[in-house]
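Renewal narrative, Specific Aim 1. Our central claim is that a sequence can be written position by position from structural information alone. The example that follows is taken directly from our test logs and has not been curated for this report. It begins with the structure tokens describing the chain, in the order in which they were read.
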């Protein structure tokens, strides 16, 4: 199709309100998330766990680690925008299904329209597995932080802290959808921003330990580090849900660009500086490398732990919500608060708690899902589905954009194979040794 025809088929501004508002090609009406609130969700979902684990990932990759962070951010941001454009295609071509009613499974819907029902089911299970594993990691991180803060006064075993964390998360998980919990995303973003600045100050005050010796970078360590970086930018599983809840879904790309710019401002300095302090530390959590030599630094370290804990607490609700909505959809549970919702979402938290009790290896979990499900959902599928939907709808795509998408698909496939092999091999040979939880 020629460029002029493409413009008539796809107007520059998409159909509006995602939750029952009147549709219009030139704007959005009705209530929903704004760009700023959506930015909070993008940051709130990815920044917490990413900030804590990225220094270890950069340490695993060596000097090129910081460069890879910028590169992966560019690729992930691009595919995030592509995913948003895919959802706009659905709203324009099938407006009666995606503009006037609540859509609980926007990402699987994109997959169905692009590749067929099998793709929809594949994406659905990959999303559930990914978000379930991430929520489990959040429970582990929050439990570690609480043990550090209160362990000196309450000699509770680590596994008891997991139970306490789950008890706190259960009622928070009952919230309906992202548009009902935007304040959680804002709280997570603000707390992480303050914590990142404080961490950088503490690391600079402590100074680098000149006696430390850099570790050897091997193929396996590089792949494990790359998987952690991929995970840090792997929020795409929830992106269509956030976009669906926007008042004007056509502005999702703007929210992604702003969100990624803010995340890079956190990731790059913390990972570059923090990786220097992991040379004598085998744990994957940067908080375990903060040395409290003076009372002021000790108080600052405690404050940082509290702030990251707030982010992880709020981030869990953001991460777990799409899984809960999909479970309710499969079980045909009404989209409103009730006993059935309480039962399903309580069981969801308890299941995450059970996995956390059984496999307390958060860094290995990050490496495994970062190299498998996240690589598919955040890098391969968005580029692939965009090309397929464009072909089906005869939407004009420039030659260089087609080439870029195929390069992303190819490189991501090779990366997925290498990182998955390295993560599985490391888990089989080393297990959870050195990765269970940090010592305070």
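The sequence written for that structure reads:
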């Amino acid at each position: 199709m020629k460029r002029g025809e493409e413009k008539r088929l796809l107007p520059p501004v998409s159909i509006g309100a995602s939750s029952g508002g009147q549709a219009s090609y030139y704007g959005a009406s009705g209530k929903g998330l704004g760009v700023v609130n959506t930015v909070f969700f993008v940051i709130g979902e990815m920044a917490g766990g990413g900030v804590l684990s990225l220094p270890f990932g950069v340490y695993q990759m060596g000097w090129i680690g910081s460069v890879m962070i910028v590169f992966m951010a560019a690729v992930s941001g691009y595919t995030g925008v592509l995913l948003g454009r895919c959802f706009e295609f659905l709203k324009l071509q099938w407006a009666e299904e995606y503009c006037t009613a609540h859509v609980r499974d926007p990402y699987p819907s994109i997959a169905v329209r692009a590749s067929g029902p099998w793709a929809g089911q594949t994406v659905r299970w990959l999303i559930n597995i990914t978000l379930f594993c991430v929520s489990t990691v959040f429970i582990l991180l929050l439990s570690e932080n609480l043990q550090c803060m209160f362990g000196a006064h309450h000699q509770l075993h680590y596994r008891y802290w997991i139970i306490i964390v789950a008890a706190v998360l259960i009622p928070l998980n009952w919230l309906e959808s992202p548009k009902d919990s935007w304040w959680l995303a804002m709280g997570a973003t603000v707390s992480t921003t303050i914590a990142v600045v404080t961490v950088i100050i503490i690391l600079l005050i402590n100074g680098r330990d000149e006696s430390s010796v850099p570790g050897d970078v091997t193929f396996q360590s590089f792949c494990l580090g790359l998987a952690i970086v991929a995970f840090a930018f792997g929020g795409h599983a929830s992106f269509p849900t956030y976009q669906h809840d926007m008042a004007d879904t056509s502005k999702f790309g703007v929210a992604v660009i702003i969100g990624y710019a803010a995340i890079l401002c956190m990731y790059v300095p913390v990972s570059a500086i923090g990786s220097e302090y992991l040379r004598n530390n085998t744990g994957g959590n940067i908080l375990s490398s903060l040395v409290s030599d003076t009372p002021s630094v000790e108080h600052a370290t405690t404050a940082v732990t509290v702030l990251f804990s707030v982010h992880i607490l709020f981030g869990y609700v953001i991460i777990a919500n799409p899984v809960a909505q999909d479970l309710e959809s499969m079980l045909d549970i009404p989209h409103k608060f009730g006993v059935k919702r309480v039962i399903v979402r309580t069981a969801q938290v308890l299941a995450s708690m059970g996995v956390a009790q059984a496999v307390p290896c958060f860094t290995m979990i990050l490496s495994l899902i970062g190299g498998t499900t996240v690589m598919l959902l955040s890098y391969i599928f968005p580029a692939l589905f965009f090309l397929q939907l464009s072909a089906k709808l005869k939407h004009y795509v420039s030659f260089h954009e087609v080439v870029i998408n195929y390069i992303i698909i190819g490189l991501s496939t090779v990366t997925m194979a290498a990182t998955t092999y390295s993560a599985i091999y490391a888990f089989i040979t080393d297990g959870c040794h050195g990765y269970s939880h940090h010592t305070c």
